[in-house]
Request: fold
Amino acid sequence: MEDIFKIGGEQLSSRLFLGSASYPSLSELRKSIEAAQPGLITVSLRRESSAGKGQEFWDIIKGFDIPVLPNTAGCYNAREAITTAEMAREIFETNRIKLEVIGDDYTLQPDPYGLLEATEELLNKGFEVYPYMTDDLVLAQRLVDLGCDILMPWGAPIGSGRGLNNIYALKQLRARFPDKTLVIDAGLGVPSHAAQAMELGYDAVLLNTAVAKAGDPPLMAGGFAKGVEAGRAAYLSGAIARQEHATPSTPLLDKPFWHQAQK
Amino acid sequence: MILININGVQAELDSSISVSDLLIKQGYGDKLVAVAVGGSFVPKSLYDNTIINNEDDVEIVAPMQGG
Reply:
């Protein structure tokens, strides 16, 4: 079954989006990308000294010919996020922006008000906004009202590895926005979390820490790629309904000794 | 003489200066960077005409790893 994945008019090769931060080394990052073969790689910006040490990282990413998704990590208000997005667009030559406006230090929970403010302005400036958001239904509706075609609710707080904290809310988002691209962003820990998100009908998952901080990042990256594939296949193939009783899988008609014990 | 902040570090310059000249003077040359002055993005096309004045905050950023 052909399963073409388009986002923002561009066809992507995978429904796994991989972050590029926090790997033990650039070598492990490279191997992890090779193992995951992600559809998008997230990148960021940092203050640059004239000594310029970031070039090696960027050379590695460019070598993969995989589209990048710049983020606005570390921004705590709409203005910072908008300026960061504009700088990212110039450097990375893409209209895509993973919009993060953080509202709480402890949970890194996004600030919905700052997110809406920044989203509106960035959409007006021609950006393709990937909003990092909570799983709040009304916030999702407001983002869609502004013109967002992509929503990225968290599974759990960034780096927590908890998986999908609120299945009910995530199911509601999928049911209420059947035509929007929904991506689980953040909080995943193991490939089964990614599979679960895909089984719910999410279009993709975005993760970083679960791979970068694993004991063997490339091995975990490959595991996540398989998890995403498995979950997507489950969603497309139509899972059986859960029930409380057993149903024999082997046909019993004409089996030897069938019901003999009851005589 | 003017005092400005470049990436949060104070720097002393003889006089106001364009973004283009500042990048050359500070050794960024043709590095892949983007610039904001006073919290606002300055596109490359405006480097020559954007003047940095006393007490301006300048951010110079480059690609890095991100999640």
